[in-house]
Amino acid sequence: MTVLHPAPKIASNEGVLDTLTGALADMVVAANEEYGEIVITVARDSIEDALRLLRDGHEYQQLMEIAGVDYPSRAERFEVVYMLLSLTKNHRVIVKVSAAENTPVPTVTTLWPVAGWLEREVFDMYGVIFAGNPDLRRILTDYGFEGFPQRKDFPLTGYVELRYSEEDQRVVYEPVQLAQDLRSFDFMSPWEGADYVLPGDEKAASVPPSAPPPPSIATPKTTDKPADTGAGAKANDAADDKHSAGAPAVKGTAKKAPKAPKPTEDRPARKPRAKKAGSEGGSGPAPEGS
After folding, report:
1. Crossing angle, helix 47-57 and helix 16-24, to 10 degrees?
2. Is 180 or 65 the better-scoring residue by pLDDT?
3. I need a surface site. Which of 40, 91, 247, 286 has the fewest CB within 10 A?
4. DSSP class of 65
5. What per-residue confidence (pLDDT) applies to 208?
6. Domains of the chain
7. How far is CA 146 from each of CA 76, 109, 124, 159, 216, rounded to the nearest angstrom?
8. Looking at residue 290, what is its pLDDT?
């Protein structure tokens, strides 16, 4: 069965960049082809008009995703990325706008109602404001959450922690309490080493060259008698006791160990038993009178 579809299996980018930038005209800030994708940056206030032109005039019917990107070093640190798909051309295009923390971006819910959910995600994670969104609320974090998790200046541990209180029988918010006082970790390279002296290394460096060498441990020291253990008089008295477990016996106090038993005496071999008459394969004596 042959299935006919107007969209090509493989869509080429040849001529697409020039066509789209020519149609968008003054709305384009920058445009290029990166990693096989057409990327067009448009003016923030013109995003709704630009996406409407791409949808209606160039058959990019579907809004696949809206994503946020954070560049803290830029004056307008955020980028809002719109990913469009043409079902009839089997082609994708990426449109971007820049925004600051307090700069609103026009909503595109007037073009795609699904953009309401996508804009809420970007607002919740990055704090980008979308002007005209009818329901711009948090969608992933809690309603009382403060801050925006995907910003690079946000602490990983958060400002507050949420837990259920058995005493109050409700969910409570409390400041984050770190159990470890010192949270300064040094992930140094094990093959390069640190530029400073690690704790304990200063002891090795402070030993004078004229110091005597450490004692040799070629011959291990053993305790020949209980007094050498240094456990005290009570332990020594217990060691002298012949019933003390694990202590060596003192001369004259230990009982003589019983001797090994004598080997079993040899006995003569038993004579073989006579087999009964009529037994199978028997060779016993024949009955009398035979």
Report:
1. 130
2. 65
3. 286
4. E
5. 62
6. 16-131 (3.30.460.80)
7. 22, 26, 10, 8, 64
8. 47
